[in-house]
Amino acid sequence: MKIAFAADSTIGLEPERARALGFEVIPAKVIVDGVVHRDYLDITPQEVVAAFRAQKSLSTSQPNPEEFARFYEDLLSRHDRVVSAHASSKLSGIYASARQASAAFSGRVKVIDTLSLNAGLRFVLEEARRRLKAGLAWEDLETALSAYAKRIHGLVLPATLEALLRSGRISGLAGFVGQLLRILPILAVEKGEVFPIDRVRGFKQGLRRITEHLRRRRSASVVLAHAENPKATAELVKMLSPLGIAVDPTIHDAGAAVTAQAGPGAIGVFIRPGPEP
Question: For 215-272, how does the pLDDT look when each residue is reduced to its tens digit (9 = 90+)?
């Protein structure tokens, strides 16, 4: 049985890089001053950063069910079945749109809510491939992956509060005080939600605190992602190296859609689940 493994562009991999890992990608949408652009195809993360700094209006949207249906039709013309993993349903409408489209394909498409973002989508697809190769029945795949997704953890450090202010995730007063004191939150991505777990004064302290969080978790393997901040990513790799934490050589970017939400310079760390307890 030939199976396609698919994700939306919040996976943080350009289509060519995703295909090198065996994944197909459908683009999310970035809306700049009312004009709709397809993530990676019509707009790059660098262009989102430029729009952000130019104070242009930025928002995001999901592919609609009709676009997902065409995406699946194309994949099924070359494959027997499709595993389709998407950003947390609690953070985006992408999963709901994919789920609606999949109903037309008589069980040949499994749509998975990863409860995560970015590299979390990759973890779920890799686990799907591993389990199917090991003989897991197609009918049991969704249940197995749903349990796996609950064990994915992520940490995000924004470089600025401006994106959180624009999105309304923090109040104007809190943002003003935070910017004045250079206070930044460390955000956890767990079980589909994003919430603050720590506060730091300045980005460099934030990198040190993330390192401490990972050491306490005894994390063995992580994937890093960034919103146009390779310098800080390289610095974090050096900080993690003495701890014996394996950093995957494939560094993800945030993608245009996630960069629009997280803001320029944000860093993400996604922790690969270990063996099941």
Answer: 988 778 999 999 999 999 999 999 998 998 999 999 999 999 999 988 999 999 999 9
* Reduced 3-state DSSP string for 80-116: CEEEEEECCCCCCCHHHHHHHHHHHHCCCEEEEECCC
Residue 76 has pLDDT above 90, yes or no: yes
pLDDT at 216: 87
Confidence of residue 171 (pLDDT cuts 50, 70, 90): very low
C-alpha to C-alpha distance for 125 and 25, rounded to whole angstroms: 12
- Computed on alpha carbons and rounded to an integer, the radius of gyration of the chain in Å comes to 18
> Mapped to the 3 state alphabet, what secondary structure does the chain carry?
CCEEEEEEHHHCCCHHHHHHCCEEEECCEEEECCEEEEECCCECHHHHHHHHHCCCCEEEECCCHHHHHHHHHHHHCCCCEEEEEECCCCCCCHHHHHHHHHHHHCCCEEEEECCCCCHHHHHHHHHHHHHHHCCCCHHHHHHHHHHHHCCCEEEEECCCCHHHHHHCCCCHHHHHHHHHHCEEEEEEEECCEEEEEEEEECHHHHHHHHHHHHHHHCCCEEEEEECCCHHHHHHHHHHHHHHCCEECCCCEECHHHHHHHHCCCCEEEEECCCCCC
Q: Which two tokens stand for residue 81?
A: 């079945």
CA neighbor of 92 nearest in space, from 196, 9, 198, 153: 9
- Cα dihedral across residues 169, 272, 128, 276: positive or negative: negative
pLDDT value at residue 160: 85
pTM over 0.85: yes
* Dihedral pair phi/psi, residue 48, rounded to 5°: -65, -40
